[in-house]
């Protein structure tokens, strides 16, 4: 972030000092030009510059060669493509720096966790930004550079799927269509051409075609940058002041506004929607999908209610006991001079109540979630999973279905032509060049060279002895490789016919499943070359080249023969089949209407059919077996034909011989799921998807339909959790609809990556399996922490409550409770949430969305260990002075010094928690609690560190910690009783959970019937259970618990005996879990949504630390 700021400042200064006279055009002129559209822009270009060539000349760049290397030295003349970072507001440091050591520890550890988490996410964002590269031409070479290095005058190559990083003017285009909805709100794709609309704008998506543009504006001078400036990041002081005021209300980072701006269309001209319903919907908070967050929130509310009840009862009993004993039993009158003493007693009772409350409330829950997710995300990056949305990590643990692409994910994505049908012969191996007639060879070489995107090429290997590098589309690279195998050079043809000489290009897309290129010959005739899926292109072929290279009639019967004898055998071996064809348009005839594609790409002559092999990744079959063993169904959704798809599915293990599973083509799938009116019916989908394993020849719409059908299905009790992989622009809807969307980091387009939750940096299916492991590990880590936390909660609350009621004092003092709180909240969450995953996680079925957080086995462990600890603590409390032959600490005067008795109780209690932390590592009844303990260095360090600090507190803590020094013998007894929890744990694990019928599960998710009807009526995909819980009045006081402030007050009041007003002092702070829609008034009526809830923020906000003591059903 700092580097970016420096870079921006340097660029800004350079721009101020630059001599614009070196170029024929100024910055202001370019900015004003890029604000024009369509015909206005064309008129302006013609009037001021003549044509695009004129602009290139003034910018000292060449349409073909790009900028010269010399000119690159002038890079800082115009701005680099860096947007100014938003100044970050510094959070005010917590007041009360000189508080006791325990409170400082809580603050420092929490602050360190927050800092490391923030640093990690910044690093993640930085990595995503650095990995975004764009193709430009410099010095005659096509190179990829980071988008931040793009400068004005660069010649950039744009292609299908790109997110344009800068403004520019089209130099050459092939069937180029742009989605400008992010800037203009126009949902239809805008066709770009030199004669109609050559203006290309940053932040827009290339949906079809390819081309080249000259960059005219970058950074804050681009159209996106100008809007960003209006939002206040690079503007004047007045704008900054406005932003500062907004920040005080909304704490929204500006870069999130920018991202939201990229994704959201603008509103109507006046910036207001007429529809009240839309207004209401726009103001709804974003609905997150985190199931775990909802369960945790609900559980925390329940625990909070119990804690409030216990603390209230404690205070009431103490006050009543004191009043009755003093004024009723002892018959003492209320003396005015004794009032301060009575008040001190009441303050003491209140402190004890707050102590019970502080221990009961699990503030560590959000921290455990945060640490577990942050730790997992960091480690997943090493496993080639770049997590963009935190909740995806947790959701993956519940995945029940994976819909995977074939090419590049299950296979190696290194395409090679291995078979061919040429001159009426089926070659099982690539033939020698001499075996192919020269006439056919000419068609083949020209057709492949010009009808493959010029961005696809084969480069020499990076290392000697390595394989040639495939750049661009892998299928096209396989065809180019075929020419190299035939001793022909495609580059010679491309040099002779450069891209700008191509008369018309019908680029590949998922609808046409083919690509065609039109060439204009010197005699005025035209020739079109076409390639695509064999069964589709063959249907358009009326002729085929014979053995001597002459066209002959190609009848439907001949086509069926080729399908049966050539295409199906190739497909059964797992080969992708591509048909190559051409058509001539004689010179004498009128020029065809090129926009009428159906009339152009028909009546073709077949040149050849080739079979392309993409071998299965060697590690994939084993990974799929692991998925199936883990209860996850893997489905292949591919654009290949059904025979190829079936063959690959068999090799991968998705299909096994003798199993009753379905393999369908897209058209057959659509026929089965639609009724007579052509409408999709869920009942029909439900009959198909449970047995469907392969969906071939599918379109992105089919993939979206399948994913939606599985998610919406009610065939099984548990709602299916679906993960989807995608690489194309049109995969966006399916990636968005899925519970977890995986985009391909290598082959994926920018649009697919933007729609995804996780990016697979190696495009490998095994990385998805690792994501499942990490997701399940997050869930288990939270459960481990809960098992430990609730055991401490139960024991500490009962000890404090019972001790207070019987002895008029809590055996565990306020500061000691803070230390216990630190152990059981912050340190335990750090230790238990960083357990690494193991293969054993894949040996069980998914938990499912409705699985409670606390299973019956965990409940058995919690209650079993709580029983042991309570027996030990109460024995020491009421008989400890006799056992150790020391003075009793019970019924001590108000300001009595610390006693050995209560110090032993405190020390033993902490030792039991330390050893129980080891027990908590296992939640499924395993006996070996030490298994893999040394694989987690953090856990070992925290347990040992806590032990050392406990020694220091007991031996040297003195009065501040209410501790008295203990002898070696007393220490050994404390450690021995603590170790007893390990032995007790073995005894508990021998008791079958099935015998304990009275045990109940806890921590269920919010059930559908619990959700208010008005929320179900809203047109939202997911209900955010955490947010819904937070809206309830009963949680008000709990949500407002200001942990540190409370502890400061408790300690101060406890030590100084201050008035009750001091203990009640609170600093309310207001925060929001979600940022709603913001309307920003600008001259262009820009209206953006900045919904920025994330799982981490959401989890933290569940426990916003401001306390207001009120009854549970009160409202703010």
UniProtKB/TrEMBL annotation:
Coiled coil location: none
Spans traversing the lipid bilayer: 93-112, 308-329, 349-375, 785-806, 862-879, 937-958, 970-991
Topology with respect to the bilayer: Multi-pass membrane protein
Span of domain P-type ATPase A: 132-230
Gene Ontology MF, one: ATP binding
GO biological process: regulation of cytosolic calcium ion concentration
The UniProt record lists the keyword Metal-binding: yes
One Pfam family from the record: Cation_ATPase
Catalyzed reaction equations: Ca(2+)(in) + ATP + H2O = Ca(2+)(out) + ADP + phosphate + H(+)
Alphabetized InterPro entries for the sequence: ATP_Ca_trans_C, ATPase_P-typ_cation-transptr_C, ATPase_P-typ_cyto_dom_N, ATPase_P-typ_P_site, ATPase_P-typ_TM_dom_sf, ATPase_P-typ_transduc_dom_A_sf, ATPase_P-type_domA, HAD-like_sf
Keyword Phosphoprotein: yes
Residue ranges constituting the Cation-transporting P-type ATPase C-terminal domain according to the UniProt record: 810-988
Annotated compartments: Cell projection, Cilium, Flagellum membrane; Membrane
Domain spans labelled Plasma membrane calcium transporting P-type ATPase C-terminal: 1033-1067
Record-linked SUPFAM superfamilies: Calcium ATPase, transduction domain A, Calcium ATPase, transmembrane domain M, HAD-like, Metal cation-transporting ATPase, ATP-binding domain N
EC number(s) per entry: 7.2.2.10
One of the record's GO cellular component terms: plasma membrane
Keywords of this entry: ATP-binding, Calcium, Calcium transport, Calmodulin-binding, Cell membrane, Cell projection, Cilium, Flagellum, Ion transport, Magnesium, Membrane, Metal-binding, Nucleotide-binding, Phosphoprotein, Translocase, Transmembrane, Transmembrane helix, Transport
Family of this protein: Belongs to the cation transport ATPase (P-type) (TC 3.A.3) family. Type IIB subfamily.
Function according to Swiss-Prot or TrEMBL: Catalyzes the hydrolysis of ATP coupled with the transport of calcium.
Subunit structure: Interacts with PDZD11. Interacts with SLC35G1 and STIM1. Interacts with calmodulin.
NCBIfam families attached to this UniProt entry: ATPase-IIB_Ca, ATPase_P-type
Name recorded for this polypeptide: Calcium-transporting ATPase
Organism: Cairina moschata (Muscovy duck)
